[in-house]
């Protein structure tokens, strides 16, 4: 009886081992999501954040070039007309650079703006005169503020030399455009997102105590 039981247990163990081996062979190995988004290039590692920068800059140009041209016929203010022209021309140069860098690094780029940008384009295409001037200045200024944080974040931490140079150029363009838009006198800064709340400073007593132990 005991021999029979031991034999059955041995056979059961064999079946379990065989099943485990089969599962290991059939199931694909798990892939770390972070590793899947990372690739090596001649200019250094390329991350998901690096790729996202190229995509966002490309999409920024895809809506800012048309609305910059809208200003030529829809704006009332001569300054808005001029700012629209300068932003359109800058984005033509930046878009060419974006496509060149993306091709070199093997990054696929979109061919149309995102949903929000398409909505802003439709809004401006339906306006003219003072309403266009006001919305043009504020929509573009808010959008540049958002993309600035993306460009600056990648510039501060990227390990890829091509992306580093590209992000530096992007920062220069975004800063120039924010200044141009503010020069219209139409930007409502109260409507812009506030800067993030800084981390609280350590208590004074703690800081003094730390210095004593150094």
Automatic annotation (TrEMBL):
Pfam families: DUF4142. Residues 49-179 form the DUF4142 domain. The chain crosses the membrane at residues 9-27. Keywords: Membrane, Transmembrane, Transmembrane helix. Signal peptide: none annotated. This is Putative outer membrane protein. It comes from Nonomuraea polychroma.
């Amino acid at each position: 009886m005991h021999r029979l039981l031991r034999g059955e247990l041995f056979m059961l163990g064999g079946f379990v081992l065989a099943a485990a081996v089969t599962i290991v062979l059939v199931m694909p190995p798990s892939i770390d999501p972070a590793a899947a988004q990372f690739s090596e290039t001649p200019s250094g590692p390329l991350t998901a954040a690096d790729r996202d920068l190229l995509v966002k800059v490309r999409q920024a140009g895809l809506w800012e070039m048309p609305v910059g041209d809208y200003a030529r016929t829809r704006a009332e203010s001569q300054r808005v007309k001029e700012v629209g022209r300068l932003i359109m021309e800058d984005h033509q140069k930046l878009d060419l650079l974006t496509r060149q860098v993306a091709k070199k690094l093997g990054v696929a780029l979109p061919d149309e703006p995102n949903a929000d940008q398409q909505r802003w384009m439709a809004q401006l295409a339906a306006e003219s005169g003072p309403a266009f001037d006001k919305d043009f200045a504020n929509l573009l200024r808010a959008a540049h503020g958002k993309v600035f944080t993306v460009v600056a974040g990648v510039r501060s931490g990227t390990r890829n030399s091509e992306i580093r140079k590209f992000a530096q150029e992007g920062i220069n363009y975004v800063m120039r455009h924010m200044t141009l838009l503010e020069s219209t006198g139409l930007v409502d800064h109260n409507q812009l997102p506030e800067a993030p709340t800084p981390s609280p400073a350590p208590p004074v007593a703690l800081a003094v105590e730390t210095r004593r132990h150094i």
